[in-house]
Amino acid sequence: MEGYTGDQPAAGTISGPAQGPGTGYWVMRIDVHDMETYKSYVAADALAIAKYEGWFVVRGGRHEGVHGEARSRNVLVAFKDYDTALACYHSPEYQAALAFRSKAAVAEVIAIGGV
């Protein structure tokens, strides 16, 4: 997968992704079937990502499924730790965004703690 070099919702408060031991991540695999509604999700999820100081490491881009089924879109978001990644996902801000994504796409999201 290619990295992401576009706008970052938390750029006003942090200068780059969390990294190193203890970093938390969202790994998202997505198939979008309603791009207009998905755009509303992208705008809304930025509020939660900014609040919890997440950083898009991968957001779409070129990829190749080398084993198993691949989704059409892949996203990797880094957070300072696993608990923050979970808190962001369960936050009212992200749950409001999720209402848009649920209408516009099929997705898997995994929270992972780095070592």
Proportion of beta-strand residues: 25-35%
Helix/strand class? alpha+beta
Order of adjacent strands in the largest pleated sheet: 2-3-1-4
Low-confidence stretches are: none
Could you give the order of the helices and strands? Answer: EHEEHHE
For the CA atoms, what is the radius of gyration?
Answer: 13 Å
Helix content: 25-40%
- Give the assembly state of these chains: single chain
Descriptive account of the structure:
By secondary structure, the chain is α+β, with helices and mostly antiparallel strands. It contains three helices and four strands, in the order E-H-E-E-H-H-E. The protein has a four-stranded antiparallel β-sheet. Helix 1 packs antiparallel against helix 3. The radius of gyration is 13 Å and the shape is globular. The mean pLDDT is 92.
Quick tags:
115 residues, alpha+beta, globular
Short description:
This protein is an alpha+beta fold. The chain contains 3 helices and 4 strands, in the order E-H-E-E-H-H-E.
SSE layout and pairings?
Elements lengths: L23 E9 L2 H17 L3 E5 L13 E7 L2 H9 L1 H13 E9 L2
Antiparallel strand pairs: 1-3, 1-4, 2-3
Helix pairs in contact: 1-3
